[in-house]
Design a protein that fits this description.
Length: about 375
């Protein structure tokens, strides 16, 4: 039994400033499996903080009862740098104020960092190969010297995540139903997670193009397997981004339920023993290709008047919203319909109704790949 609360100090880029990064290690130190979870990497997305707040005591109790088959590493608020981004009475937190980079983009490509040093060591034994690759990542970590505040923060997180068998990154959308992003190779695990989360959609892509945090842990294995097809290299980590609805969905009532559901998922993965926390949930929708989900955008500024609700099934050409003109001849009278570009489920909308050219205003989950969707598949 072990329950550790760890506090690490990050030196900020401005002189005299420091911040702290808190996390928890729970469960047997010699466990053969490891689960890593974090919340609020996008610091303005806080449902995950509340969910992990409720999950921690459940894990602590399970540890006390000797039920944990894995070590759990939990960062309930993984981005203190983003949490400190307060200006003019508002919290931001999606972008690093120093670099301008989205906190969930441009994470390292571990394939690039380790493939040369591990290539000659790979064997015909898949388990040995997992150790060899993780050793390679460990060595790369040991020689990388973080300098800036964001580098220090990322380094601490990678040090704790690199040898995890499951990495779950808790986010939320703008105004949305629950959904998941992951890779097609993890379909079975993600279907179970989706059922437990009662998710409306599971969106799959091998590489969404954004170097997001969850993809660090899947793409290294997938790229190694592709580069060395004569060596058995399994997908050693199931990783996913979990979108817990919209940014205002932070309440004890719903997030305690989310925490218990997450616990149930971990039980079905045999990471926690004991009677199921609740009965097995009903099946949810099957995963779909992320490239089949339309990110509907507007081309001009205006005020949105939505014509659809979350969860509506729409047809291509249906009106999702009217965009009320705010300038020109039609100012405050002209309404331009914004149409769905595919058949599917309306997964998300915007809470902010004032939009400008290039803004995403909806996600429509279709089933047919869209020719308009290639390269970078995520919104920034
Ligand atoms: Zn996010």
């Amino acid at each position: 039994m072990s329950y550790e609360h760890i506090v690490r100090t990050i030196s900020c880029d401005a002189p005299g400033l420091k911040t702290e990064l808190n996390y928890f290690r729970i469960g047997p130190k010699n466990a053969s499996q490891k689960v890593f979870m974090q919340a609020a990497l996008h610091a303005d997305e806080q449902p995950g903080i509340m969910i992990l707040h409720h999950l921690l005591p459940l894990l602590k109790q399970a540890d006390t009862n000797g039920l944990l088959n894995a070590q759990f590493v939990i960062f309930p608020m993984v981005n203190p740098l983003g949490m400190s981004d307060l200006s003019f009475g508002q919290h931001q937190g999606r972008y690093n104020r120093v670099t301008g980079v989205n906190f969930n983009r441009q994470w390292p490509d571990l394939f690039k960092e380790v493939h040369e040093q591990v290539a000659d060591k790979l064997t015909d034994n898949p388990d040995k190969n997992i150790h060899i690759v993780r050793d390679g990542i460990k060595q790369w970590l040991a020689q990388s010297k973080p300098v800036t505040a964001i580098q220090q923060q990322q380094h601490i997180v990678i040090e704790e995540a690199f040898d995890a068998d499951y990495v779950l990154d808790l986010h939320c959308d703008n105004d949305s139903l629950a959904h998941i992003f992951s890779v097609p190779q993890s379909t079975d695990v993600m279907q179970s997670l989706s059922d437990w989360m009662s998710a409306a959609a599971t969106l799959m892509a091998e590489d969404s193009g954004g170097h997001s945090f969850d993809e660090v842990w899947s793409t290294v294995w997938l790229k190694l397997a592709e580069a060395y097809p004569d060596k058995p290299i399994p997908l050693a980590c199931h990783s996913a981004t979990l979108e817990y609805r919209g940014r205002f969905d932070v309440f004890d009532s719903i997030n305690l339920d989310d925490a218990e559901r997450l616990y149930g998922f971990l039980q079905t993965q045999e990471l926690i023993n004991g009677d199921l926390i609740r009965s097995t949930p009903p099946a949810t929708a099957k995963p779909t290709d992320l490239a089949a989900t339309e990110f509907t955008k507007v081309n001009e500024a205006g005020l949105l008047a939505y014509q659809v609700e979350l969860g509506d099934i729409v047809k291509k050409g249906d009106v999702l919203a009217d965009l009320i003109a705010l300038d020109g001849d039609g100012a405050f009278s002209k309404r331009t319909p914004i149409l769905a570009g595919t058949d599917g489920l309306l997964l998300s909308r915007n809470v902010q109704k004032y939009v400008w050219p290039g803004c995403n205003i909806a996600k429509v989950v279709g089933t047919k790949r869209l020719t308009s969707r290639s390269g970078m598949l995520l919104a920034d």
